[in-house]
Amino acid sequence: MDTDAQVRAENAARTSYGRLLALLAARTHDVASAEDALADAFERALTRWPLDGVPDDPDAWLLTVARNRQRDRWKSAAERTTVPFDEAEHDGAAPEAGRDRRLELLLVCAHPDLAGASVPLMLNTVLGFTAAQIGAAFLVPTATMAARLTRAKKRIERERIPFEVPGPAELPDRLAPVLEAVYGSYAMEWPTPPRERHALLLGLAGTIADAAPSVAEAHGLAALLYLSSARLPARVDEDGRYVPLAQQDPRRWDRNFVAAGHRHLRTAHALGSVGRFQLEAAVGAVHCARGAGEPPDWAHLRRLYDALLSLAPTRGAAVARAAVVAETDGARAGLGALDALDGVERLQSAWALRASLLDRLGDPAADAAYAKAISLTTDPAEREYLGRRARGTGR
């Protein structure tokens, strides 16, 4: 098989799937049928592109093939017995392949009638995660999650939920689960998202902020993603070894991303309301404000985490606050803050922090904490770092 053709097809699947699916589903409201048609198109691309060459506009090619598959299905005898065929609605001519209706599909998934399935549905349809991946993230069996997604897709078709951006009065509430889904997708692929997926998520966050300029949290999410992404180049050193955030060299951060994050954060602040994503972005901004060899403003970070926990308490934020307490009040105080938390027994960050604080205190219990943290760590670079710490070679 032509390697370049295969890579181009796989790249299109990663970067264009959600946009093409939205275009295919918008006319019929049949998301499942659109998924089947698009899967056929990608399968055909893997067969034809190595032989015929990659088309000049791969997305337009995929959209045309998928649209024709939809047309064939709807014109089949089996379908005609149950559903009247509308020649205009199912025209085989592909619409403008560059058009982006992902936000409309996201907002369809966020419809109040789909409450309870909205975020998993967005992760599946627009962001391309499988039922197994989503089930693992939500601690739900794959079969249960797959059934939930199927029911939601059937409801979209049955109720013909419109593909449109709602008015200003309704938009903020409809956007809330959309922002959660985009953030969830980013978090699920952190810290090493494929480059194309990374660009897709940043672009999608920017698209949402542009479409909802008066929604502060839309800008807050964009700020958070840009400021977090800015630090990725310094997360490992030249030898590929993990570098904790407080020890990273700010000169290796992406200053264009930092600037973009600050622009969105200023816009969010000017809109006069405060939300979770804005506060998390503000945490990122404080980290990005330090100079080389300087510590971040720990007191400022502690105030931000206090505000975040009062507004949107999460276990991850509580563990992060305990880490900050260890810097402002000492390792023993940080350990006390960590001990006071419930429900963090399976949280990797909690065990990594516990190991580090016990290590600082010279407590031999650090060895067991390091072992537990390593067992919960999926990122190879961080796992290797914790292993060095446990052996005393990285201390």
UniProtKB/TrEMBL annotation:
GO terms for molecular function: DNA-binding transcription factor activity. Residues 17-78 form the RNA polymerase sigma-70 region domain. Residues 174-268 form the DUF6596 domain. GO terms for biological process: DNA-templated transcription initiation. PANTHER family: BLL6612 PROTEIN, BLL6612 PROTEIN-RELATED. This is RNA polymerase subunit sigma-70. The lineage of its organism: Bacteria, Bacillati, Actinomycetota, Actinomycetes, Mycobacteriales.
